[in-house]
Amino acid sequence: MILVTVGTQLPFDRLVKSVDTFAKELSKPVLAQIGKGTYTPQNMKWIKNIEPADFDRVFFDASVIVSHAGIGTVLMAKRFGKPIILVPRQASLGEHRNDHQLATVGQLAGRPGIYVAHTDDDLRSYLLEDLDSPSHEDSSEAGRASLVTYLKNYIAAV
User: Fold this and answer.
1) Phi, psi values for residue 31, rounded to 5°
2) In what helix (H) or strand (E) does residue 141 lie, and over which residues does it extend?
3) CA–CA distance from 36 to each of 12, 33, 49, 104 (Å)?
4) Using CA atoms, how far apart are residues 153 and 8, in angstroms rounded to an integer?
5) Which residues is 33 bridged to in the sheet?
6) pTM for the whole thing?
7) How many CA atoms lie within 13 A of 156 on its CB side?
8) Cα separation of 87 and 85, whole Å?
């Protein structure tokens, strides 16, 4: 199963609509947690919010995660060893108050198991691929240290 999650604070109809447009092409079923969105998916199962008690199980059962660039979801994907496709919210499209998610994907792009989709074509291509999980952790001290530093700074700023 492919899990699409947009968080619970803000709607992200652009992401939900994008996956919904090509969900029928995918070899795996899709479950979308759409949060406060107003778009109603037609080609995939969806739920407004997944209860916290059920979220770990759903996350564990998923083979791929598609998400806004929320750091909590990134860390959860790492914890469960799931590949994650990040679609950053954009302030210019009214999806967030600033572009911190673009900064986040700028720091995370290229790390094992993390894929960044800036366009619908990027997202579709990733979902049609067999993605590597983050279990092949960056073993370099510099890579690990830069991620830890970035996360500490990110958490401090929020």
Assistant:
1) -120, 125
2) helix 141-157
3) 8, 9, 9, 22
4) 23
5) 5, 47
6) 0.82
7) 6
8) 7
